[in-house]
Amino acid sequence: MTSAMPDTHVKPGWTGRFFEDFAVGDIYKHVLGRTVTATDNAWFTLLTQNTAPLHFDVNYASQTQFGRPLVNSCFTIALVTGQTVSDISQNVFANLGWDEVRMPHPLFEGDTVYSESEVVDKRESKSRPDVGVLTVKTIGYNQNGDIIISFRRTLLVYRRGQGPSGRYRPEPKNAA
User: Fold this and answer.
1) Which of 11, 117, 118, 130 could make an S-S bridge to 138, C-beta 3.0–4.6 Å?
2) What is the pTM of this model?
3) Phi, psi at residue 42, to the nearest 5°?
4) Can you tell me the mean pLDDT for 9-21?
5) Longest dimension (CA), the chain
6) Closest CA to 106 of 82, 58, 141, 131
7) Does 94 score more than 60 pLDDT?
8) Helix, strand, or coil here: 60?
């Protein structure tokens, strides 16, 4: 609150890393885990018009070698990418691509997903002086440590002092 007591101080929240904050070899163990529910899987699958019953029909899935629904692969990449944002791309200008996407172990409803990323390349942008090009290798794994996804992601990250940063945030108006 901006109407703090005189002896308190406003502490800024985490605003993420900028291009200058990364170094090749840095490893980030992303803080939040996320348990995937049947509702997550069914809604994501149906919202994206994926008609594969393996993701939303328990009876159908029970007759496969897995014996139960598999979590939609696109949900998996979206979730693990999302887990990386606070450490890697809070100050993203744009994603350039995901490469070498692999899913070596299935993800099931009820599994909890954790992730970590390693910076594998960092370079200046040749066309945009306000950003740099960053490539990370990310893995997502379940509560047993089984890797469920790995991928390389390349993105443009703002340099410090560039981009919207905190300028977009309004201040609250005084209450009457």
Assistant:
1) 117
2) 0.87
3) -65, -45
4) 85
5) 66
6) 141
7) yes
8) helix
Query: What is residue 118's three-state secondary structure?
Result: strand
Chain centre distance of CA 160: 21
Give the tokens for residue 54: 């393996």
**140-143 CB contacts, 8 Å cutoff, 24+ apart:** 140/76, 140/79, 140/80, 140/83, 140/113, 140/114, 140/115, 141/113, 141/114, 141/115, 142/105, 142/107, 142/111, 142/112, 142/113, 142/114, 143/33, 143/111, 143/112, 143/114
Overall size of the chain counted in residues: 176
Q: Model confidence at 48, in pLDDT bands (50, 70, 90)?
A: very high
CA–CA dist 91, 19 (Å, integer): 9
Question: Quick one: which H or E segment has residue 121?
Answer: strand 112-124
Amino acid identity, residue 109? E
Cβ neighbors of 161 (< 8 A, separation 6 or more) are: none
Q: With beta carbons less than 8 A apart as the criterion, state whether 120 and 135 touch.
A: yes
Residue 73: exposed, middle, or buried by beta-carbon count in 10 A (0-12, 13-18, 19+)? Answer: middle
